[in-house]
Amino acid sequence: MKDTVFFVSGTDPATSTGGIAHALPGYFSALDAVGLKWFFFPTHHSISIWGKFGYWIMAIGPLIWGTLRERRRGKHVVHYLHAGELPSLFRKWLLALLVKPLGCQTIMHLHAPNIEQSFQHWWYRLFFRLFISGLDTLCVLTSWQKKKLLEKGINKQIVVIPNPLSCDFEKIVRQEIPTKNSSGRINILTMARVVEGKGVDLAVEAMAFLPPSCQMTVAGDGDLLPTLKKRVHSLGIADRVHFVGWLRGAKKKQFLSDADLFCLPSQLDSFGMVFMEAMSFGLPVIALGNGPICDVVPHGQAGTLVDQPHPQQIAAAILPFLENPEKRRHAGEGGKRWVVSHYSAKEVGNKLLALCQA
User: Fold this and answer.
1) Full DSSP string of 60-129
2) What is the pTM of this model?
């Protein structure tokens, strides 16, 4: 729609720690794919001393003046606010309060990973309802999240719009899976913040139940990393587990390309962009069948979802892929098809287009 302008606000993509910052370039690609004009206003930066409120305060003036400018030009202005946990919801709610009287549409996209746990607290339920009041639409990343909010009595219009592929991964997902080396060694990649709940520790401990032909690369950084490095020595797998730190850009893509399998039994994800990226490279995915992940990784089509966060069960899910290259290829191709049909920029862009036409 040439008369519609999206004002996107959220964490600055220059942030290197994942989350909303990791997802936003895909939304930019989605808006471009359907010809929607957009401007981005960073309201948070997780590695800046002024990140939580400095960026937000600096965005208020440009957001208001930009809205007034586009409204004078006769444009339909959509404020598209990406929010995480409660403090982020609060900041985006205040922005919505400021711009709503200017005659624009307000859409908040929720990226918080712990909806079910957070709603156990009465104060969270109270503030959540306050912070989404006045919005035109609330977006969530998966059907599971929508179901949970409806069960909690949230009667706001809720629309499921998943994270889209960025333009560089869109090119990768449409390429054929390359033939990997036939040395017999299987390279398993796990990639995430190395913190409680992300499942990196479970993936590493599963290596103790896998044959010597398996090697694991741990890509990430976090509080649990020193403990995990000690743990691989006590398990006797230090020679098969390699820590490479946080990866980004071309280096990250190279490790995804070199891997044969992706494993991340996370219990702390609202979506998990890394699953989509692994499937884009044609990697079978071993993950935990936990909440929103069930909507992101199709069990039996792109890999295997395990029932419980136990290292032995994770290892048992990996084993069938080790000696069967055809099984790996079949799952990899299934993952690529799934990503193209659900997370392409055009697919997500059309969903955003439908919101501003509603």
Assistant:
1) HHHHHHHHHHHHHTT-EEEEEEEE-SHHHHHHHHHHHHHHGGGT-EEEEEE--S-HHHHTTSHHHHHHHH
2) 0.91
